[in-house]
Amino acid sequence: MSKEMKKLVIGNEEFEVVDASARTRLDGHDTSIAAKAEQTDLDVLESRVDGIIALPDGATTADAELVDIRVGADGTTYNSAGDAVRGQVENVKDELSLAEDQIYSVTKMNAVASPIGWRLNESDGFCSANANFQLNKYTVTAGQIIKVVSDDRFQFQNNISVPTSGTSTRIGETYGSGQFYLTVPTGATHLIISTPITDSVASVYSAVGVQNKIDELKSDLAYVNNPMDDYNLQYTDNRPDNFVNPDKLITGYYINASGVQTASSAWNCTDFISIDGIEKLYAQNIGLGAYYDSNKTFISSVTLGNSEDVVPPATAKYLRVSILPANVETAIICPHGFYRNFAQDYPVSVWKSPKKGYEEGYIRFTVPVNNTSATYTNTEETNNEGTPNYVDVDCVLTLPFDYKPVGRPCKLIMMCHGAGKGVSGDGNWTENEDYNTLVSTFTHYGFAVFDCNGFKNDVLGWSFWGNQRGIEAWRKAYLYVTDNYNVEKTFSIYAFSMGGLTAMNLAFQGFPNINAIALCSPALDLREVWNATDGTQAVLKVLYGLGDTWDESKVVGNNPYKHIMTIDGVDYCPYKLPPIKIWYGSTETNNSGNPAIEKEIARSFVNAIVNSGGYAFYREVSGRGHEICYGGSNTVNAEIITYLERYEHSVPTYY
Fold first, then answer.
1. What's the rounded mean pLDDT across residues 496-503?
2. What is the dihedral of CA 605, 606, 612, 614, to 10 degrees?
3. pTM of whole model > 0.85?
4. For 207, which of 6, 145, 402, 436 could close a Cys bridge (C-beta 3.0–4.6 Å)?
């Protein structure tokens, strides 16, 4: 190698260069490039490197082109040394960007609004009219990591609106084009990005760091493997196997040394906690408590405090404890071994239950129902739907004893009760012994069961006889139950008496996920209800705006039997329906004043479905009357269960 030829090292690559002075100058630039972080500085240095490129003929050896550096590490030959440096720097930047994408798990976000004709200003936080741009607006949360691909400008704001002047709502700076990984700053609620209306590549992603992603996967594995089942434990609303439910503590009381619930504003206490079969207990931040036998009779007092291996008395079946208000969120009672072996190995976010836990008896909840009637005959330019008037309608849910908020979901039944009473108020269906027997039969076989009032919590509301305002309650109750409890999306319907109108209107309107329908002594034809002699006309007049004579136009869409078509004397039902079975007692008679016992209508209804290729059955039970429809016959109850179980998972889940 001549004295003019020197080695230039870039990374692990060696190149021959002409003249030591050129080597010295380039070494200085190489070191500076490695030390710079800002793109503007890199641009300056790259410009200075270009000063070493090819010169016109006749230039001195010291200023000659660095020929070998034009060849990149991958063999690519560039037009000049400057192009070679810039091109390979860009490759490194691309690889770094790819590495960032591998470190983060990204999910594309959807804009909540995209007004056209506006563009963010370059630096002042405002926007200006521009027909070639639009503003895409995203909802973000402070501390959230996001990836932004920008082809114009973007900024964080504490408001979704971008002013054109006055007071800016921007938080931080206005960014330009490029790809960014950013943490949403404190106070920011929205990200606004201006993009060209056409050919834009701008997008925003929610990015989860690799450690957070590992925690998510660990959480998923915990649920899939469900190690809690190894302990055969019970579950509650907030934490699996923590018997302390903060939402159900009795405030202003403690359990004294005699096991008596005693008033004290300084304490909260639990109700009876079942500890049957549990050999040892773990306790954290628990005060004075007491053990009780199977009859809930006091055995002995206990102060659990913070203990890992509390052994209850052999005869103890229940426990009640006192908890200071300051310790409500951290108090724990659970079987020995669970907290040490599971909870301490996983973050709290993992062992919180995704669904509500088991409660004994009727669980009461409400759903908002608009009880304003629509007016469809008015031709004036007014809102015929009327002004909404939402009422919180009472509903009930009963869970099977083996229900758990994680793992395999339990089966679900929608109960549609008859007229005369609802699920709340004096003398409601949940106070009826036969109704309770029927519900208990369903839960014994693993079904969760829910029922509702109609469109309000009074006689008219729960005796709504097929009216759409009432049916809205069942739709919303279904969504509440499936959203909040670990139940299957597919479900079966059991309806009795006037509830037949509710069930069949839901089915004819295409309510999804119905496995099968069981109807006992159902009302199916509003016209026959009108013809009854027990005062039902007065109710129907109020519900449907009827006059003194029947008017079919007032009940359009509310009368299931009107879906039946008669062609050449043969009844048909031109709708696809789930399997249907109808029961009647043989002693029920037509036109007896009870509109729910029209057996001829039921037979005709079944025949129409069968004639159309559907699946339907009619059956009469000898010697029984209307009482069989609300649980009056254990034999019929068992038959209903067997029928509904036949069609479990018979339809796909649509949502």
1. 90
2. 130
3. no
4. 145
